[in-house]
Fold:
Amino acid sequence: MAEVGGPVERPFPPGDYPLVVVGSGPGAIQVSYSLTRLGVPHAVLSRDPAPGGMFRRFPFFQRLLSWTKPYAPATRGGRAFERYDWNSLLAREGDDTPIAADEAVMVDLMDGTSEFPSRPEMEAGITEFARRTGVVVRFGCTWQSTAREEGPDDVRFLLRTSDGTYRARVLIFAVGVAEAWQPDTPGMEHVAHYVDTRPAAEYAGKRLFIIGKQNSGFELANGLLSYAERIVLASPRPARTSVETNSLVGIRARYVQPVEDHIMASGVHILNAAIERVEPVESGFVVHTRASADGAPLPVEADAVIAATGFTAPLLDLPALGVATFGQSRLPAMTDFWESATVPGIYFAGTIMQGAKGPLKYGIPSNSGAVHGARYNARILARHIAEQHFDGAPARPAVPPDRVAAYLAREASEAPELWNQKGYLARVLTLDDAAPGGRRRRTAGGAWRDDGILPLAHFADAGGPDAAAIAVEGDQAGVIRPALYIRRRGVVTEHLLDPHPLHAFASAEYRAAIVAALAGLGGAS
Amino acid sequence: MRERGPGTQSGELRDELARLALFADLEGAQLEAVAHIFEEAWYPAGTRVVRQGFAGSGFYVILDGEVNVVVDGQPRARLVRGDFFGEAAILLGESPIADIVADGPLRVLHLAGQDLRSFLLAYPRVTYRVLVDQTRRLRNANQWRR
Structure:
């Protein structure tokens, strides 16, 4: 990797490219690697001086929420190990032979004191992955504006940067969702955002008011417990923990200590209240709140106020170009394949992918807002772009009918894509009635083909030949089970399989359940 | 990062909710709270937001756009801005009996199915509006049968 290895000529000078990726965080590095594996030529630009994206700076207290377990119940570096390693980027492509040197990068870099890597370890992991895999980035090149140019044959995008103008038919923005966002509440201009939190010692003996009760707010509260005299956290919605929601929605277990301190009335107060205004006074601030339950006003004095009020995606002028956005995070409206729903040819990678909601079964969102979800999306995105824009035709290996049930059951038991993106990604097998070369098969029922990992929503809605997809799903009660989806004559039906206490879904019992649901489709057994 | 803070969209979503019949009886702090209880989502045309026969569906309120209610492939009804859907399957503990398909770009509010009961109990004025709307739908269905 040129920029990491030493000062050599900067890659990707301004000019025409088939595709341009913007960013150098895990999302950009992963999608660039996957595009290269598929032979899609592209340039990668980043305003930063080195890889890492948001992990070059955050989390504030320097410890991630996502684990890498070196002694997991799977062979280190193997595919199944990815389920226990949420932080390494992916060098393998599905089941193919692993490139040993590139697997499970994070395990090699963590000091063993915690299964949650430190921020510097994560930053080093992204850099090391890029070095090992040869991902090249033009650093110090800031995307400034975007335009569309109608050519004689097609549409091209113009990307104006600090280094000059780039032209490309396809753009991928992997610019993160980590830009500070504060509401327009009166007085908020006096309040520091999470990203501007001062060193912890500066809050020693202070009365701290944190606006916001999601993970960033609780991360600060947890880290400042031993410094602040009193901590008040407030937002309109009651805080829920991940162990209450049985998902990654809510406050993660690592940050629950302030909740216990609140329950024990030990210097932490958690309020369900709207913030009406923040008033600067001589002694600091008065935060005027109004209780969500009964509208009762409550002014709270504080020496310091921090807005842990969320983050947005820095899309610059893309909305003016026609990219529709929604919600406070200003996420782009996307297709199931993370393409702008309103400006074809513009795609998104990394944490922005959380804008493509998927089925939202049981109200549980995807993990696309985290590395362990977005890394799989990036691989699918690269394949999709290769097929749609570069005449790529990825392999669709045949699956013998007598192996279909065993294959689906094994995927439900082990596939990291299905476990890390529960209810969002699925392994898809399609009955292909066309023989190689486009000739129609003479045998009835066609042949099973492995279409790889695809968004479940796409499988459910896109139509097509008879097919089967397996996903892993968790519900609101914390029950995890395989979910089989079968498409016959264009209609997709859901078949929920039984849960298992140890999540062992590859047994004869599960294979039999799959065979029964397929009911002879394509001769599957 | 995936977070939404207080005051989120306070100037936009709260005011938007206030203009919808479903939330018309709520006042300031309640509207602010409701704006934080729901999640916003955006779907391209043709998306099945609710899928017939699929477990674990949610409750939705249309902010922008329109949807078709489709049973076994046959369009049965049309819902527009301010309408809501998904509550019947949740309240009855069954899988949806219809697809809800976006007819054009669709922006909605979403509430997980398991959170609907506590929401309706916490906001009885919204529950009353839901009841009125359900009664109207039932009446229309009965008229259609005659």
About this structure: Residues 97-101, 435-444 of chain A have pLDDT under 50 and may be disordered.
